Amino acid sequence: MTTLSTLLLSDVLPRILTIALAIGVGVTLANLAVEFGAVEYIAVLSKPLTGPANLPNEVGTAILTTATSTTAGYGMLAEFRESGLLDDRATLVAVTINTFFGFVQHIFTFYIPVLIPILGVQVGVLYVGARAGIALAITLTGILAGALLLTERNVDPTAMESVEGPDDEPRSRREKVRSALQRTWKLLRKIVPRLAIIYAVVVVLIESYDIAEALDFAAPLSGLLELPPEAIPVIAIYAVDTTAGAVAIAPQLGDPFTATQAVVAMLVGGVVSFAFSTFRRSIPFQYSIWGAEFGTKVIIVNTVLKIVFISLTVALLLVV
């Protein structure tokens, strides 16, 4: 058996340094893109979607804003609702359409600079593509719902003449670069230590123990999803923390996980994670934006749609 020090130096350390470098470069480029407004050129595609959904043009501005700031985008929709421009049904449709454009932001700030370097190109692109397809399907569902369920009674264009977006003071190029680097450093300080610990633990456990034998009791569940028993702890970790789950599965890609199995395990972990994320993030965020009553409706709609389309995606991956 390889000694612990040799294992850490020959396998874990090079992997951690490579991932940390890739994350640092990727996140910096992503932060610079956000700071200089590059993401907005993609977000502008949202505006034509409001017409088929029977929503006013102002909602297109909120969707555009969501691609750069989820909080700001939701805040604008909350203002539309409070002003009477949108009723509750129209607001739920707008929130649903928002899904893909909220995901766009994460492509540039998390998936490309963080997750793909951890998982590798093949598995990373397959996973991000699956998540993008899920987000797009939810957005298209929102457009269809608007076309079928919304009428002029759900929208009052006279309620407000306009809603202004975030009033950010102009900043110099130097300030934007400094802000991007500060956010990168803050993220690296948070991710890299956790990355190193989890990756080291996973590699040592794989090298030291027969994980498949130890998790034999979970064979029925993993067998149902055509996954190896090692998927159970990956799903459990992924349910609590996305980055940690990706780090946990990374050393096991190729053996015992195929690319498809790895994506299925992470998607299943995503479904399980809703129980954690609802209490840790969704309730505080949505309640602060909408209040408890309507915030609960938003959480339910978001969660149900995500579970449905993730389940369909998992089924599709298992069949193909």
Gist?
77% of the residues lie in helices and 0% in strands. It has helices at 4-35, 40-43, 57-66, 70-83, 88-119, 121-149, 173-208, 211-214, 219-224, 231-240, 242-249, 259-290, 292-319. Mean pLDDT is 80; it is low at 162-166.
Provide structural commentary.
This protein is mainly α and 320 residues long. The protein folds into two domains: 37-155, no CATH class; 209-320, no CATH class. Helix content is 77%, strand content 0%. The chain contains 13 helices and no strands. The protein has helices spanning 4-35, 40-43, 57-66, 70-83, 88-119, 121-149, 173-208, 211-214, 219-224, 231-240, 242-249, 259-290, 292-319. The radius of gyration is 22 Å and the shape is globular. Mean pLDDT is 80; it is low at 162-166.
Question: SSE layout and pairings?
Answer:
Elements: H1 4-35, H2 40-43, H3 57-66, H4 70-83, H5 88-119, H6 121-149, H7 173-208, H8 211-214, H9 219-224, H10 231-240, H11 242-249, H12 259-290, H13 292-319
Helix pairs in contact: 1-5, 1-7, 3-4, 3-5, 4-5, 5-6, 5-11, 5-13, 6-12, 6-13, 7-11, 10-11, 10-12, 11-12, 12-13
Instruction: Encode the helix/strand succession as letters.
Output: HHHHHHHHHHHHH
Task: Give the oligomer, counting copies of the same chain as homo and different chains as hetero.
Answer: single chain
Our estimate of the beta-strand percent is: under 5%
Low-confidence spans: pLDDT under 50, at least 5 residues? 162-166
For the biggest sheet, the summary is: none
How many domains comprise the coordinates?
2
Cα end-to-end separation: 38 Å
Tally the helices: 13
Q: How many β-strands, per DSSP?
A: 0
What integer value in Å does the Rg equal? Answer: 22 Å
What is the structural class? Answer: mainly alpha
Helix content: over 70%
Mean pLDDT, as a whole number? 80
Shape: globular
Keywords: Membrane, Transmembrane, Transmembrane helix
Protein name: Putative membrane protein
InterPro entries: MJ0871-like
